[in-house]
Amino acid sequence: MYGEQELLRAMEEIAKECGAIIKGAKEEHVAATEKTNFRDLVTSYDVKVQKYAVDELKRRFPDASFFCEEGDDRGNLSDEYVFVIDPIDGTANFSRHMNISCVSIGCFRLGRPYAGVVYDPYNDELYSAVRGGGARLNGRAISVTDEALEHTLVMIGTSPYNPELFDRTMEKLGYVFPKCLDVRRRGAAALDLCTVAAGRSGLFFEEILALWDYAAGLVILEEAGGEAYTMEGDPLPLDGRKSNIVAGSPRCIEESGLLSDRFK
Ligand code: IPD
Ligand code: CA
Ligand code: CA
Fold first, then answer.
1. pLDDT in tens, 226-260
2. Which of 70, 195, 215, 249 has the smallest C-beta neighbourhood within 10 Å, fewest atoms?
């Protein structure tokens, strides 16, 4: 068993190093190649950052398993410690020099999300949480907003790798837009979850996400007083299946009506 602070500090240090690699990327070296389709991209930096994070976590926590986006490192999620890693969340942004990307490192313990660290190197913002310990942004406690939905910005994801889901996204967007301050689409789901956790946005939804997109952000969000569900109102799957997601403050989720029968 590892100490909770030792684990969190190590994840934070490693995420910051990953962020330095991301921010220091040379423009001529971020050329992307396609994975499953023309929108699903990978760069040499996704691979490099993941390798750094995995090597460093293995060195410090030799018994841990891994569940990572790039390659085939998909360990058993019910192991005692499993690191769930998205080396660059927002790869399309990264490959277009948009400066909206982050590294996301989650840790499952015996099958449950236990700790999460998300680092945005462009704004030098480090979000972190361990189960039961509250959520922090650069060491400061954060919490979701208590404002009404109409006073908050809503973040959406467009599920770019599954274009068949786009109409559903637009239907929900059309339903929520009149009830909120405005809508944002930034292109990095882990950062979207943390943006809700920090109270900067009241709600986030997307039709499909992978575990590495939300493993870290989920702990941070919940420790900040937020909630996340599937669009059917169930808890998010923790077995590695992809899922749709509605995440926000309890008030904004309720006021959005996204979990009402209308969308079942
Ligand atoms: C993607 C981003 C994007 C979201 C996609 C994710 P990636 O992750 O988070 O915002 O819309 O669903 O897959 O591929 O850049 O790591
Ligand atoms: Ca991602
Ligand atoms: Ca990624």
1. 999 999 999 999 999 999 999 999 999 999 999 98
2. 70
Domain boundaries, the chain: 4-142, 149-263
What is the per-residue pLDDT across 91-107, written as a single tens digit (0 to 9) for each? 999 999 999 999 999 99
Ion ligand 2 contact residues with beta carbon within 5 A = 86, 89, 213
Going by alpha carbons, the residue nearest to atom 13 of ligand 1 is 209
**What is the CATH code of the structural domain delimited by 149-263?**
3.40.190.80
* Domain 4-142 -> CATH class: alpha beta
Residue identifier of the C-alpha nearest atom 5 of ligand 1: 159
Q: Which residues pair with 119 in a beta bridge?
A: 103, 126
Task: Annotate 86-132 with DSSP letters as a single string.
Answer: EEEE-HHHHHTT----EEEEEEEETTEEEEEEEEETTTTEEEEEETT
User: How would residue 131 be classed by pLDDT, with cut points 50, 70 and 90?
Assistant: very high
211 lines ligand 1 (CB under 6 A): no
Overall pTM > 0.70: yes
